[in-house]
Amino acid sequence: MCGIVGIACSEIENIGKMIRRCLERLEYRGYDSAGIAVIRDGSLIVRKGRGKIAELNRRLRFDEIYGRVGIGHTRWATHGKPSDENAHPHTDCRDTIAVVHNGIISNYLELRENLEARGHVFKSETDTEVIAHLVEENFKNVRDLFEAFRRSVEELCGTYAIGLISIYEPSKIFFARMTSPLIIGVGDGMNMIASDIPAVLEYTNRVIVLKDGELGYITPTEIYIEKDGKPVNWRERVRVISWSLDMASKGGYPHFMLKEIHEQPLALSNTLSGIEMENVRNICSLLAKADRIFITGAGTSYHAGLVCDYLLTELAGANVTTFIASEYRKYVNAINDSSVLIAISQSGETIDTLMAVRTFKERGCKVIAVSNVVDSTIPRESDMVIYTRAGPEIGVAATKTFTTQIMVLTILSITLAYMMERLREEEYKYLIRQLQELPSLTEKIIRMHEARCMILARYLKNRTNAFYLGRGLGVPIAMEGALKLKEIAYIHAEAYPAGESKHGPIALVERDFPVFFVVLDDYYVEAIVGNVMEMRARDAYTIALAPRKYVYKFAKLCDYVIDMPNVDYRVAPIPYIIPLQLVAYYTSVMRGLDPDKPRNLAKTVTVE
Ligand code: F6R
Fold first, then answer.
1. What is the pLDDT of residues 104-113, one digit of tens each?
2. pLDDT 10s digits, 113-163
3. Which atom of ligand 1 is nearest to the CA of 396?
4. CA distance linking residue 215 with residue 224, whole number of Å
5. What does the alpha-carbon distance between residue 412 and residue 53 come to, in Å, rounded to a whole number?
6. CATH topology of domain 443-593
7. 3-state class (DSSP) for residue 108
């Protein structure tokens, strides 16, 4: 979490405004506080405070800062509450060095005590501030700023992406990376560092993704990277990014989330056409040999994993275990070199998932990554990778990355089932055709149901709780629907297998309590009808997402029905989540909230 940016330009520019614009593209990584530091006329200008970037810009006038070199930060608080003092950049005792940081310095208390004993005075409660003082201290001894920075980085434990500037070398931005993501944007007459690609797209589409243990500096015309004291040949690592600035802008929509919901037909079709079947077959050969397949991810990616779990188990008869990434320890003694882990992470940087990947790999397990960000850490550290092609997702709540993850995971599952001769060729081809129809089908669903979802949102906006129930593949979709409502509309929502609702949760149901039913599989229709009756008997407000062929049945029973196309249940998770995304979005907006920036959340969670 937290986003950092640094810009080094040849000429004096309106650098405060440039940094502010880059930070706005990183705000999805945290928005508790923000700040900018620029070197001007031999001294540091630092403006920072608690709040979101737009309001801080009005208050602190970032846009009026001119200079050549500067750094910026948008924060998701870990060490120290959100406050003006704890906002980055942090400075040393004499305001000669400013630093921004994403990650956690785990030995900061020890470092801070040592530095305080040497007379350093700290102004914040953050772990980050030790970096500024450490460089100040080392600089006193070596009188070479890069050497002081290098020595300081060696003393740090934990995770970090660091940007540092100093009046002693006013044209340089020093950087270092360990676990937390960091890229260099290679420009003309300017270079940049940033936590993520969308931040630099306005200025350049040429990037270098830094690796763990790399550090160095940029000037407007120079890039220097080293690892283990040896220079790195970065020129061969410059990649041209195909994402455009438009893709990372709202493009006329009031929120990124709504734009990203609407982009799903395109994201699905790009993902489908980008899938290399040879890669899929290689991955499936590995899966076919596995004695146990583990699947992991966090939040929405975990829900995509549950869809894959269901398909691999039912269609391929695989031995599958799916777990929430942060809970990986339980399986440490169950892993061997015949196990395979599928690690799902749209950002490719979620620390919980990364830790699971590293632990499984150390024990000889092969890892397959499913990610939306090319060259991000999890794909890089995995044995094989399959990318979704959703384009940049900026809204904090995952939407198009979820449906595209399910697309690739469904293709993997049905291909494995086919290769293992558990799915006949005609059946396999039929399912592929069903998947190929999803881009146009999802487009139709959005067009037909957006208004109905708004009507439902009007009802939900005044409620405090909701249940989402499903059976079979409807369960992970119910879980994802509940997560969306919870995280952006702040309405307490729980998902259960519909059969389980009787074993406790139903005690909460009273008049007008909203209960969603996800009906996507013929096999479970009668059982779900029974569950609807139970909820009706307690005066719940019942809402069904049901295939057209059962719409009349559910219309007679439920208070509200969203009629879904008659698709095969094995591909239904993709279309079925869309109305639930729209309902959550409109409920959030009608409650006066900002769905792109839900409180306490950040899009990429890089702390454990
Ligand atoms: C929910 C959401 C999060 C992420 C989770 C994992 O809308 O976005 O639950 O799914 O933080 O992120 P990735 O997929 O980047 O590993």
1. 899 999 999 9
2. 999 999 999 999 999 999 999 999 999 999 999 999 999 999 999 999 999
3. 8
4. 8
5. 41
6. Rossmann fold (3.40.50)
7. helix
371 lines ligand 1 (CB under 6 A): no
Nearest atom (ligand 1) to Cα of 350: 16
Residue 345 Cβ inside 6 Å of ligand 1? The answer reads yes
* Vertex 172 angle, CA 191 and 198, to 5°: 30
Q: Where are the beta strands (DSSP E) in 241-400?
A: 292-297, 320-324, 339-345, 366-371, 384-387
Catalytic residue check, 2: yes
Catalytic residue among 48, 400, 597, 603: 603
Model pTM above 0.85 = no
For 250-436, which CATH superfamily applies? Glucose-6-phosphate isomerase like protein; domain 1 (3.40.50.10490)
What ligand 1 atom has the least distance to the C-alpha of 299?
9
What digits encode the pLDDT tens for the residues 392-449? 898 999 999 999 999 999 999 999 999 999 999 999 999 999 999 999 999 999 999 9
**Res 185: pLDDT:** 97
603 a catalytic residue: yes
What CATH number does the domain located at 3-245 have?
3.60.20.10
What are the tokens at 93? 């005792």
Give 364-426 as a DSSP string.
Answer: T-EEEEEESSTT-HHHHHSSEEEE-------SSS--HHHHHHHHHHHHHHHHHHHHTTSS-HH
